Amino acid sequence: MSSAIFEPGLNHFLVVSALLFSLGVMAVLSKRNVIMVLMGVELILNSANINLIAFSRFTELSLDGQMIGLFVIIIAAAEAAVALAIVLNVYNRFKTINLDEINLLKG
Amino acid sequence: MELTTILFYLFALVTLGSAATMVFSKNIVHSAFALMFTLMGVAALYVLLYADFLAATQLLVYVGGILILILFGVMLTSQGYTLSFKTITVNLIPASLISVGIAALLIFAFLTTDWTISEVAERTDTVYDLGMLLMGDYILPFIAVGVLLLIAIIGAILMSTRLSAENEGVS
Q: Alpha carbon B94 to chain centroid distance?
């Protein structure tokens, strides 16, 4: 019986995704490089996806969870393409991608 | 212990370890490569959850697409000839407090909630069912996402070409 708690169940995947989410939040909050912030956003999206697919495996949700995960991956691809184009434009204009130095809109 | 149990802990360790490497590394190129191992570990976790098509999609779209895009971004925005790939970390204490708080809150919420778990039968492959769903119940989101991708591609191309046109005008 003692090995049953180590068997990977729903809670194990949820804990992994929670830790991944907090690491992504850490990257978003503490990095000043735009590309590092983007990578943190990718981590957050991946942790949400793990949750969706874990619920689709262990509950009545069945394939609907995988479907939503598929759409999340597609939207993440679109987001990354547009965000990188914006970053290149910002670099062209300000010659930096340091978030602290891009403060043109600050009063 | 069963093989799947060992594999789960192995891939969870790979995922979380390389995610931590990504966040705490000072070199942005190292971060990008650590992100690659994180994404691969997540794909392996998808396989353990019987989501084989999503694992393949994860590898193709994330590792093959988004990660290459991010590496291009790193290369194109490295400043000057010194190639300084260092990333600056600020707000270290508030950021770590907030993220530890979020992790504790989420884990507490996950572990104390009484989920109604229903054991589904082991799936062999999901591609057929996903395709039927995509052409049936999910046809409207499918079309909307297609339009979204088209708009994103057009927007990205427009922004990039305007960028090179400006460069030519200046020089």
A: 25
